[in-house]
Amino acid sequence: MLHRITGRAVKCGPAAISAIAGVPTHEAAAVIRRLYDRRAVNGVFIDELAAALAELGWAPDCAIRHPRYRERRHARRESEWERRFAGVPVAVRAVTLGTLLDPAPSGTWAISASGHFVAYADGVVADSGAWFSRRPAAWSRVNPDHARVALRRLREAVRFVPASRDGIPRNPRPQEY
């Protein structure tokens, strides 16, 4: 379930964190600033987003990376990405945003497409207001706003699950996507 995006920060990374974790965007940005000793959050890498969600009780379950961007910098430091996603199954696939979302994959996803983060959960999508509404809306290619971004190339997508109190994800076995 996605939450309505609230808060003062308007960037897409804190907006995706807000939609997934249910915290205001300025609190999500504050977590990133605290974890990475940053003055401002004008953009985030996927490892920073995952670290902030881990602080808020969410753990990565599986990931998808585009093969063309596989050798490029997906994280602040590639070693940080490898540490953060150690033990997480990673699929390498060339897909578009629409190809991933049309079959309605299960779970809660943070998706990076064309340098922009989108939050998705069980047929519902939300972002900072750049592509979609800050209020979660059902994904449908029939919607003109959704059709115009459906062909955006997916760089990375990570499915998150709520972490249990002992640090083990509640759903440790990854599902098919």
Structural class: alpha+beta
- Overall, the morphology is globular
Major sheet characteristics? 7 strands, mixed
Q: What is the count of DSSP helices, taking H or I runs of 4+ residues?
A: 6
Q: Indicate the percent of residues in helices.
A: 25-40%
Number of strands: 7
Which radius of gyration do the C-alpha atoms yield?
Answer: 15 Å
Q: Encode the helix/strand succession as letters.
A: HHHEHEHEEEEHE
Query: Alpha-carbon distance between the termini?
Result: 17 Å
- Unreliable spans are 167-177
Strand content: 15-25%
How many domains? The number is 1
Strand order of the largest sheet: 2-1-7-3-4-5-6
User: Overall mean pLDDT score?
Assistant: 87
Summarize this structure as a short list of keywords or feature phrases.
single chain, 177 residues, alpha+beta, seven-stranded mixed sheet, 6 helices, 21% strand, disordered C terminus
Explain the overall architecture.
There is one protein chain. The chain is an alpha+beta fold. The chain has one domain. It is built from 6 helices and 7 strands. The chain has a 7-stranded mixed beta sheet. It is globular and about 40 Å long. The two termini are about 15 Å apart.
